[in-house]
Design a protein that fits this description.
The chain has 405 residues and is of the alpha/beta class. The chain contains 13 helices and 13 strands. The chain has an eight-stranded parallel beta sheet. A three-stranded mixed beta sheet has the order 5-6-8. The chain has a two-stranded antiparallel ribbon with strand order 2-3. The protein is globular. The termini are close together.
C-alpha cells in the first residue's frame, strides 16, 4: 500500500439542502433591509446541516473539510454571490440605496489610474452579449446581485455569526474524529467593490475593510481552524475595468489590495491562512480573463501558507506550467482545482490524478492539496457536485498510488 497521501479539500461553497435554503428564505429582515434575523430553530438546523455535510465530505474522500459556507445566507438554489454578500450583514456602515435612488453616474478608467467601471457589463459579457442574453444558451449568471453602499464608518458586527460558524464546524469535526477544517472569509479588496460615499478614495475604503475583516479572520484562526480568504478581485477585476488597462497599470491597481490584505492577516499563523484566487464562478466564455503569469508574483506576496486557484476548467488548466517558473516561499502548499464548477461533465478520476501529478512533480506530494476550482454550491446540480467530489477523492487516491509505486 502506498505510504503517500494526497490531501483533498474544496474551495468553499457546497450544495445546501432545500430545507436550509427554504429556512433561510423564511427569515425576517432587519430594518436595514438586508440583515437576516436568525432564530433558535434556524441556528439548530444550520448546526445539524454542517455536521451532516462534514460526514458526507468524508464519505466522498475529502480530508480537509469545510462548512460549505452554510453560515453565509443563500436564499436561492443558484446564488453565485453569497461568498461576498454575507459580509453586508456583518458590517456596520452600509446602507441599501432607496427605491428611487438614481443609478451610479457612468465612469471611465484613465490610463495610469485604473478603477472598476464595469461590474455589470464586463468585457466578456459585452463580447458575448447574444449568448448571455439567451436563456437557452446554458450561460448562467445566478440571481441578480444586490449591493449596498458604504455610507458610514465601517465596523465589524458579525461576532455572533462567526462564532456560530466556528462552533458548528468544530462540533462537526469532533463528531467525525477530524482535526483539520476551514472557513471562508472575504478579502478587503473584494469587499470594497461596493459603492462608497463615506471614504475619500478607493484606497481608504479598502483599508477600512481590511480593519473590519481582520476581526473575522482572527476569530476563525483563534478557533483552531484554517482561514480561507476569498479574493476574486485580484484576477477578476481585470475584466471590470474599461477601457482595458495595461498590465503594468493593473499590477499597480493590485498593490493596495495586496498591502491591505497583508495588513489584515498580520500576526496570524501563516500555516492557518490560505488564499483563494479565481476569475469568477459564473458560467460564461471567460475569454477576457487575465493570464495568471501576469500577476502570480504579486499573489505570492500575500503572507499565506496555501494558495487555492483554478486549474481544472478549460480556460485556465494550461496555466499549471506557470508554477514551474516561480519561486515559492518555503513551505508553501498549492491547492489546484482539479475538478471544475464550470461544467456539468464529471471528471474521470484518471484525469483528476493526472492533474494532481503535474503539481506533485513541481512541489512534491506533500506540497499539494487537491481541490475544486471554485465553490460547487449553487453552480452545479447537487447530484453532479457530489459526483465531482467523489471523483476528486478517487483521483487523489490514484495519484498517491502512482507516486508510491
Amino acid at each position: 500500500m502506498s505510504a503517500v497521501t494526497i490531501h483533498t479539500t474544496t474551495a468553499g461553497s457546497l450544495p445546501r439542502s432545500p430545507e436550509l435554503v427554504a429556512a433561510t428564505r423564511a427569515l425576517e429582515t432587519a430594518e436595514d433591509g438586508f440583515t437576516l434575523i436568525h432564530t433558535p430553530e434556524y441556528t439548530e438546523l444550520a448546526a445539524t446541516a454542517v455536521r451532516e455535510l462534514v460526514g458526507r465530505q468524508v464519505e466522498a474522500g475529502i480530508t480537509i473539510v469545510g462548512d460549505g459556507e452554510y453560515g453565509k445566507a443563500m436564499t436561492t438554489a443558484h446564488d453565485f454571490g453569497a461568498w461576498w454578500s454575507y459580509s453586508f450583514q456583518r458590517t456596520a456602515g452600509l446602507e441599501l440605496p432607496g427605491p428611487d435612488a438614481a443609478p451610479p453616474a457612468p465612469v471611465r478608467s484613465e490610463p495610469g489610474a485604473p478603477r472598476l467601471t464595469s461590474m455589470t457589463d464586463r468585457r466578456d459579457w459585452v463580447a458575448f452579449a447574444e449568448a448571455y442574453g439567451d436563456p437557452t444558451s446554458g450561460v448562467l449568471l445566478g440571481e441578480p446581485p444586490f449591493w449596498p453602499l458604504t455610507t458610514g464608518d465601517l465596523a465589524y458586527r458579525g461576532h455572533d455569526h462567526v462564532a456560530a460558524d466556528t462552533a458548528n464546524l468544530r462540533a462537526a469535526l469532533d463528531a467525525h474524529g477530524l482535526e483539520r477544517g476551514f472557513i471562508t472569509s472575504l478579502a478587503p479588496g473584494s469587499a470594497a467593490r461596493i459603492g462608497n460615499t463615506r471614504y475619500a478614495s478607493d484606497e481608504e475604503h479598502i483599508w477600512a475593510w481590511a480593519d473590519v475583516m481582520r476581526e473575522e479572520y482572527r476569530a476563525i484562526v483563534d478557533a483552531g481552524l484554517t482561514l480561507q480568504i476569498d479574493d476574486p478581485s485580484l484576477a477578476e477585476s481585470w475584466d471590470q475595468i474599461n477601457p482595458e488597462p495595461s498590465v503594468a497599470d493593473y499590477r499597480a491597481f493590485l498593490r493596495t489590495r495586496i498591502d491591505a490584505l497583508n495588513h489584515a492577516i498580520e500576526g496570524l499563523p501563516r500555516e492557518q491562512v490560505r488564499l483563494h484566487l479565481c476569475w469568477g464562478s459564473w458560467h460564461g466564455p471567460h475569454t477576457t480573463d487575465l493570464e495568471l503569469r501576469h500577476i502570480v508574483d504579486l499573489i505570492l506576496e500575500v503572507n499565506a501558507g496555501e494558495f487555492s486557484f483554478e486549474a481544472g476548467n478549460v480556460r485556465h488548466e494550461h496555466e499549471w506550467k506557470v508554477w514551474r517558473d516561480v519561486d515559492l516561499p518555503a513551505g508553501t502548499v498549492l491547492q489546484p482545482g482539479v475538478v471544475s464548477h464550470a461544467t456539468n461533465v464529471v471528471e474521470h478520476p484518471e484525469l483528476v490524478a493526472d492533474r494532481i501529478l503535474r503539481f506533485a512533480e513541481i512541489v512534491g506530494p506533500e506540497g499539494v492539496v487537491a481541490s475544486t476550482d471554485c465553490g460547487l454550491g449553487g453552480r452545479v446540480h447537487p447530484q453532479i457536485a457530489w459526483a465531482k467530489l467523489r471523483a476528486l477523492g478517487e483521483g487523489a487516491r490514484l495519484a498517491a498510488q502512482r507516486i508510491g509505486g
